Description:
The protein is globular. The chain is 12% helix and 58% strand. It has one helix at residues 2-17; strands at 28-30, 33-37, 42-52, 56-66, 71-83, 89-99, 103-114, 118-127. It has a single domain (2-127), classed as lipopolysaccharide transport protein A fold (Sandwich). The protein is mainly beta. Strands 1, 2, 3, 4, 5, 6, 7 and 8 form an eight-stranded antiparallel beta sheet that branches.
Amino acid sequence: MQVNYLIKLLLSLCSLCLYSQIDREDLEITSNKVFYDPKNEIIYLETDVSIISEDLNIKSNSAKIFLKSEIIEFSGEPASIEIFFPEQIKGSAENIVFNPTRNIKLLGNAILLTDELNLNSDEITYSISTK
């Protein structure tokens, strides 16, 4: 019951911060463990984390969603992210920090692929288009 409530809360809040085209019905979040810290307004997702929508696909071992700053941090071996709008971006790294309105930071064995780029580095920061 608590997990369902947290997932519904997450869907409501996350749909506001991810691209405006994503709505509650479109966003699917799965995780084996969910914890909400109301004091700091952080949602923790652990074990087999997946955040999927029409425009976004995130897979990781764990994730933290900072509701105040609208940032998602996730980690894995590797963690991966795919964005399909406003441009197609694929990335993977040990740690990823995703700010939907600004950028993606890939940290540790980072790989970033776009239509024009194929980057490999220990750290990559990519500004997201606001078309």
